[in-house]
Amino acid sequence: MSVVISSGHGLYIRGASGYLDEVDEARRVVGEVANHLRGVKVPVTTIHDDVSRTQSDNLEWIVDQHNALSRDLDVSVHFNAYETTDQPRGCEVLYHSTEHLANVMSADIAIAGNFIDRGPKQRTDLYFLNHTNEPAILIEVCFVDSRADSDLYQMNFDQICRTIAAVIFRALGGSLLVPVHQRDIVATVFGGEDDPNYSAYPPYDDNGNGQVLNDTDFYIALPDRFEAERPLVKVYCGGKSAIAEIWDVGPWNTNDPYWTLGSRPAAESGIDEKGRKTNGAGIDLSPALAEALGIDGMGMVDWKFL
Hints:
CATH superfamily of the largest domain: Zn-dependent exopeptidases
Helix content: 25-40%
Number of domains: 2
Order of helices and strands: EHEHEEHEHEHHEEEEHEHE
Number of helices: 8
Strand order of the largest sheet: 2-1-3-6-4-5
Distance between the termini: 15 Å
């Protein structure tokens, strides 16, 4: 599990300035957060733009650097500005689809810096959030033109950086990157030599059977049939993660798309659609996938579509 963190703007494409300079402070925060993450053995890459000469080049260059790397999370660090004031303004975190992570990050930074928590803000117009191809957030640490914010930032700098690193560390465990209704899902193991069966999806053989549910591939089952293209799924468990294909329909139910309904798996009620008593499972894992995640028979996972 790894993260790429970049500072906003660049050496020649300067950001906001006031009581603080956005570019200088963003670089300072990125470096310190990276130090804390490396201290707990999290692979982290930092990016600072020292080459771009225009704003569009800057945005494209930073995103290209992120997308060229293998990682699980993209973070961009910025500082806000509005108008010069002695009054506090606060912190906020911008997101496109990772609302829960943005909410937790903003709330925790506010506590660490004694800032006003302006909360998560969904933005669908920002190049960084629209073009990075992993889950992403853009942190606005505080307002550079607020004397109160600037003083609190300087006073609490170390705790702010430690907090950002801590939230990232938790996010890389999976739960902060995954919708609430896809967290803490009971997972059971299916397929393989001990549970011989066939995929519910094509390609089919001459007897109408899908491919063999083997012991070696990473695949899952979800309790609804996908009629269109089946997305890849990333499954998290205890700090481990793996990517799998959807090969089958189940467990228990065949018409329970809880991921689109924003609900929990119907099997958690204890009864399936046929009236059978369930074990609460909302996802099935192949033997190889379960082994990679450290699950023996049954476990608890978070999962999301890629």
